[in-house]
Amino acid sequence: MKLALEEARRAMEAGEIPIGCVLVHRMQLLSRSHNQTQQLNDVTAHAEIISISSASQFLQSKYLENCTLYVTLEPCPMCAGALRWARPARLVYAAEDPKMGYLRYGSGMLHPSTRVAFGLMREESAALLREFFQRKRELKSLKR
Amino acid sequence: MKLALEEARRAMEAGEIPIGCVLVHRMQLLSRSHNQTQQLNDVTAHAEIISISSASQFLQSKYLENCTLYVTLEPCPMCAGALRWARPARLVYAAEDPKMGYLRYGSGMLHPSTRVAFGLMREESAALLREFFQRKRELKSLKR
Fold it and tell me: Which residue out of A7, A16, A48, A74 is catalytically annotated?
């Protein structure tokens, strides 16, 4: 999760909402990525989607069994839907996202074989997101 | 939708589940794509995700306002989640997918500004899917 937070900080430096993730396969780091929706002008360029695609290329497998995805924020429904198809063994997220997170639609969005944990480095992730939106509001009020 | 069905047939020829889509912006065709999850070894390579990414590149915009997505099957939750972020004006799908479609989670998965229609060329799309799974079962029984 420390690496995922590093990725989130990279997103922040690039002016993106600071969310990062890493995908690990049996103690081996397969991919690390951060949100790039602004830079790539693409709503699908969430950290999780980038890491899932990239890890699948590496493993030459659509299925990410025996993999763990660590992400700094509860995935959105799009990413949870992708995780359902990819079936990683574990999903670990740092901070909850009651507004945009997949849990609004229930835990059944994920594949039944994916175990879920959360709360790891929650405060660090939430602080980074708060800082990002605070800066954004300040910039906005300067422009007025 | 005729073009989307052509795309679905291309998927079929490539051994993919036959689903196709096109994205149209003010009468102009922006992208056409079909399911490529097997060829690309990537669960995110659904027709809709490919077309959304590609159309966003063309428009240089994350948002697909004034766009209509025509797809031969009701989108899955991953694709509905992507559509929520991309906010097209309209989604038109041919056949319903009660098992894997997004409506299991309610129509609120899409953006409130996206209008939805379905049933256009439903029979043609459903017949193609039936043919694909029938062939697959036959191949399987031959292998036994």
Answer: A48
